[in-house]
Amino acid sequence: MRPLNDREKRTIRFAGIGIAIYLALFGGFQVWKFFDQKRSDYRQLAHEAQNLRRQARPYRDKVLVVKKLMDEFHMDPAGLKKEMVVSDASAAIQHAARAGGLQLGPVRESPARGSGKTLATVQMESSGQVPAVLAFLAGLNRIGFPVVVDSVQFTADNSRPGQVKMNLTIIILDFDRQKSEQPKNLEAAHA
Amino acid sequence: MKNLSFLNPPPLYVEIGQGSLKALREDDGMELTLERHSDGRLTAPCKEKTVLALKNFLKAKNWQPRIRAVCAVGARGVSLRRLSLPAGTREEFHQRLLLQIEGEFPLPPDELAWGCQPLGGPPPSNGIMAKQELLVAAVRKEAVADYHEILRACGTDPVFTLAALARSNLCAPAVDSFTMLDIGNSQSELTSFENNVPTNSRIIFWGSENVSGSAGAKSDALEQAIKNSLTGTKLIVSGNKLSEDFTSRLTKTLGNGCQCERLEVAGGKGRSAAIAGLEKFAGQGGPALVIRLEQTSGAAASLAALDWKKWGARIGALLTALLLLPYAEALLLKPHLAKKVAAFKAEAARLTVIDRELDFLRDLKSSQPPYLDVLYVLSKSVPPGTRFDSLSLNSHGEVSLRCAFHDGQQVADFRTKLIDSGFFANVTVEEQVPTPDHQKVNVRISAQEKTLTQLQALSASLPADETGKGEKSASPGVKPPGVATAAPTTPLVSRKETK
Q1: What is the mean pLDDT of chain A?
Q2: Are residues A102 and A169 in the same domain?
Q3: Which pTM does this prediction carry?
Q4: Residue in chain A lying closest to B349 (CA)
Q5: Are A112 and A160 within one domain?
Q6: Is residue A135 part of a domain?
Q7: Is residue A64 part of a domain?
Q8: Of A64, B262, B329, B388, which one is least surrounded by beta carbons within 10 A?
Q9: What angle do CA B132, B120, B284 make, to 5 degrees?
Q10: Inter-chain touch B364–A73, beta carbons under 8 Å
């Protein structure tokens, strides 16, 4: 192979430098593009995380309210089993009545018809002293089940002075049908 | 601030004598022997050895700022002049000072390392230009340049002053003249002071090596050397290797009424009277007289002293970090953040449950009819002796009752009280039938409770003072058992007060 003259050597040197510059620029661009893509993904993720944080922020207060209400009602709605709620609630109502000194009469349970939030209705008759009756009514919302007294009727017990007969209609609510409906207020309940 | 000591390292105190260098940093000290050429300059091996030893002593980190080194230089080669210059602008004053120095000292200012200390001046009077008294200390530039080079090389930022000034800083301020004698190993330094200002400083070739000998002819040599140079009646002697009775012997030898006192200084490696004086200077904000190699303005000096290469590298590193950190953050933190987001999304189902529970419980709470409140209102409104046959209430707020009153007036009163309670929207007496014997009246009444919104609106419209009165007025009377704990009494009170 013949030796290269100076001009050829210079040409090869320039070509080498040119290729090196091209490769450096091209490679540099590729590297920069890679890192920029990573950064863009990260920023998107950070934005998403911020949105999630913003979304979760009100839940701190909501959890506190839920805790307070659960303490008030002695109940965790999510822990209730639908198939057991009616029987357990009925048993708890009767137990509360007996424990309060009321004498129980007939108790009738009827399942709810339609697609409302009611799971069942319990009608019960009982009799007892006025203080015992009032204490029973006051303690009904703390028996650990979602019950609402739909109606109550007091009549004088002529056979036993000082005692009243009470006819109660209690609704047992269904948590599974609650979904995310807006809460109704008393006005809506009265309407 | 102690936590930031790595950013503000403790200063180094150095005393540079003819044959030795003493250094003290905090409680750690060192002493080095110096080798000089016949012209007084340090030899190259001595410089290298000193730099190495000081670096080893300081253990300074490259990233830390330079340690401030406060150095006291000996009297050898130092000239002291007291100058008086007319006051003027800063530039004019500086020019005049340079001219004076050129006139007073054997070398031009460019070849001197010099410094000045303002001494104040006589108060200006009419017709006389205000003057500024100055003490100027100057030494050949090469001598200080060697020290400067060594101290810069071991990572310090040196400041030079006179050792005699540092020693005098330990003495109590005196009005009279006095002389200080610092006794070194082979040489001593004698400095005269007038009004606490050094006027003359010179080297005596007599050192502590001579003290160890008998007190005979050798003490006489010292007496001969200093007797004619003493100023005032006090001679303050300092030095590390002096015997206890040295000052009394010297007083006796001098025999001219001059009292010799010893300057007590804590002993130890790297400690001397000059270094103790430098430490005291540090507490006073630095020495008043600073000998400078270049007389430039502060900003120019600090810019000149900048290590441009080092600072350029630091700035470059910072800029690179600024450019690369966002990308590094993306690479390093993305997996962590992605994991957190995924975990949160997995937990998001629980948020729906919380929403449902909250709605359900709120719904349940708002659906609870206020039966006990109604019973409370009825019990408060009914006249004594009334007989109830039946009472029914439902969740729609409908109330109906059958009862027997004594007469029609009681019925009317009862109805009025129910309306006045503010709890009912309407009260209707559906039927009122007197019994055949006209002793009683059988009544059938129906009423409709107000809605929660109406009750809340009424409660909100009440002024605060009326609410207070309401509470008082509501307190008498007996509540039915069970009501006290369960029934919300505030709305009831509000209802009463709205009428």
Answers
A1: 87
A2: yes
A3: 0.48
A4: A56
A5: yes
A6: yes
A7: no
A8: A64
A9: 130
A10: yes
